[in-house]
Specification:
Chain lengths: ~290, ~325
């Protein structure tokens, strides 16, 4: 045993060290089923979608547009958005609960490491996996759009490099929201199934009608739902070409457009709010 | 790197007036506890007595309702991170990420500990004899291997203080022997070991100090020898006719303190000088014409003493 000295090594700091983030990446990356589903939803899905469109186009070019057509770009982006959000929630909820359900939380707390740091380490760790895979999938979408598009000169509806960058960033932001909300809700509830179901219901069932229709009794309160704000921020290229609102979308909007600051406030509120709730629960939970 | 010298003598654990309630139930009831540095300390109590709760409060796994605590002279929970820097602990059954290997689990814990904990992984695996299985998934580990992995996790801290909650649980006799040897060797290095258990025999074999807890209260604490010193002494007398010997003693010895086997009479002595009582028994038997072949005396074992002081076995409160 070495001499008893107490190192002020920053274990009480809420800032997670890189080694802790790397450790969490390792823990998540080794979950084979979760990783397989994540790869399937972020990378394999656009590849399969474009593969099918390519076969259609090659079999009947007159009837089916090239795989890189703008409307296929919008479809691919939407598919990646919907499925990506679900897998982001699942990954977030898993990151938020795996230590607890596997019995590791107790060991981690006993190390003396700040509980907030343990929580915050999960955010870059999960996003590193999710964002990189989504970037690979979206790169496939962009490459097909750029190189397998219409041979005719660029039209007004053609997808530009700027559209691709905006769409990619929007997609990554949407996945980030899914992950942080899943993480926060998972940490709060201490289990992952219910948070995943709740957020799928929010994304698939509740948000679409609220994004398209103003509901007077809500006094526009539906705009506090993150999916509604994100829908208004959606780039035109992903919204099928119609341009409404500062971000360009969504396609058919009956809701009064939100000012940009309001969209940013709602999105930031969801990300920061759920992160604070998750970190608070982590800091106060009995281990 | 800035360092703080830590108190190197005195108490490894110091608890005063600790209370922890769950709703209306008081799990830890105004506990005062001191664990000497360098001791192997047994924290004994029946199941549900509040042993694990006290440990969880000490380690900051749950909050106390009132009281003061310190680990290695550092107050907790105020300076929990500093206090736990040289503390290793297993609480309840050790569980880990089953989809990761033993080594990967230790890597995660070393990353959380920081400092040079990463360099302790191989020595810890080696010491707990897990090196050969370190790259197997934990889901394939036996209970004994998970206990050893838990101990390896403790060793990452190069701990001055080890707090182990029921470390013998689920171990077979060989595993218990192995764990006992390991704990002894850790104590021999000057580390303080706090061992919570309901296995009295294990505590008696492993520990030099003990505290008895029941219904959330610490009933007694101190060195085992001192605690059992005032307890009853039994005298076994091998003689020609134990039944006649019992009859010869009855006028002065209560019947409840006499027991018989084929060739042995056992008398539990009352409080007072043991030598005089043994001499008196011997004299009475010789006067009654009974041949005494030999006699021996045994101090009450920790188990007897434990049963006599814990309330749920009808002893004193």
């Amino acid at each position: 045993m070495t001499q008893p000295r107490l190192a002020l090594d920053g274990r009480g700091s809420p800032i997670p060290p890189w080694s802790l983030i790397r450790a969490k990446i390792l823990e998540l990356r080794r979950r084979r089923v979760l990783m397989a589903v994540t790869v399937a939803f972020t990378v394999a899905l656009p590849v399969i979608l474009y593969g099918i469109r390519l076969i259609y186009h090659l079999s009947d070019p007159a009837r089916y547009a090239p795989a890189g057509a703008p409307n296929i770009f919008a479809t691919a982006g939407t598919v990646m958005d919907e499925f990506g959000f679900i897998i982001a929630v699942a990954l977030g909820a898993t990151a938020g609960t795996s230590d607890l359900t596997d019995g590791m939380f107790r060991h981690l707390v006993i190390t003396g490491r700040s509980r907030v740091a343990l929580y915050l380490a999960r955010i870059p760790a999960g996003l590193a996996i999710l964002a990189s895979l989504a970037a690979v999938g979206f790169t496939v979408v962009c490459l097909v759009t750029a190189f397998l598009g219409s041979p005719e000169p660029a039209s007004a509806t053609a997808v530009s490099a700027g559209d691709m960058i905006r769409s990619g960033l929007w997609l990554e932001l949407d996945l980030m929201i899914g992950f942080t909300v899943g993480l926060g809700l998972g940490s709060l509830m201490g289990q992952r199934t219910v948070p995943i179901i709740l957020l799928i219901v929010l994304e698939i069932i509740i948000t679409p009608p609220l994004a398209d229709h103003a509901l007077p009794p809500f006094i526009n309160g539906e705009r506090l739902i993150v999916g509604v704000a994100m829908d208004q921020l959606k780039p035109a290229a992903l919204a099928g070409g119609t341009t409404v609102g500062p971000g360009g979308g969504p396609h058919v909007l009956h809701l009064p457009p939100m000012p940009t600051w309001a969209m940013i406030a709602v999105i930031a509120g969801w990300i920061v709010g759920w992160s604070v709730i998750g970190a608070w629960k982590m800091a106060t939970r009995d281990a | 790197m800035t360092t703080i010298s830590r108190k190197t003598d005195g108490w490894a654990v110091e608890v005063h007036g600790l209370i922890k309630r769950f709703g209306t139930r008081t799990a830890v009831d105004n506990v005062d506890l001191v664990v000497p540095q360098g001791s192997v300390f047994g924290y004994l109590g029946p199941n549900g007595a509040g042993k694990t709760t006290l440990i969880r409060v000490l380690l900051g796994l749950t909050r106390a309702d009132s009281g003061t605590m310190s680990l290695l002279g550092v107050p907790v929970p105020a300076q929990r991170s500093h206090a736990l820097a040289r503390v290793g602990a297993i609480v309840d059954e050790p569980r880990f990420h089953g989809h990761l290997t033993g080594r990967q689990n230790l890597m995660i814990l070393a990353a959380a500990r920081g400092g040079d904990a990463g360099s302790q992984i191989e020595p810890a695996l080696d010491r707990t004899r897990l090196t050969q299985r370190a790259d197997d998934k934990v889901s394939a580990y036996s209970m004994g291997m998970r206990q050893r992995l838990g101990l390896a996790a403790c060793l990452l801290a190069d701990p001055q203080l080890l707090i182990l909650d029921e470390p013998m649980n689920g171990l077979d006799p060989a595993g218990m022997h192995e764990m006992r040897e390991m704990l002894r060797s850790l104590a021999d290095e000057g580390r303080t070991v706090v061992l919570s258990s309901h296995l009295l025999d294990e505590v008696e074999r492993t520990c030099d100090h003990v505290a008895i807890v029941d219904h959330g209260k610490v009933i007694r604490q101190g060195p085992i020898e001192e605690l059992t010193e005032g307890a009853s002494i039994a005298v076994q007398v091998r003689c020609s006719d134990p039944a006649a010997a019992a009859r010869a003693l009855r006028p002065s010895v209560d019947e409840s303190r006499i027991s018989l086997t084929d060739d042995t009479l056992t008398v539990t002595l009352t409080a007072g000088p043991a030598e005089e009582q043994i001499a008196d028994i011997n004299r009475r038997l010789v006067e009654a014409g009974i041949s005494v072949y030999g006699s021996s005396q045994t101090h009450a074992r920790l188990e007897d003493w434990f049963l006599s002081v814990t309330s749920r076995f009808g002893g004193e409160q």
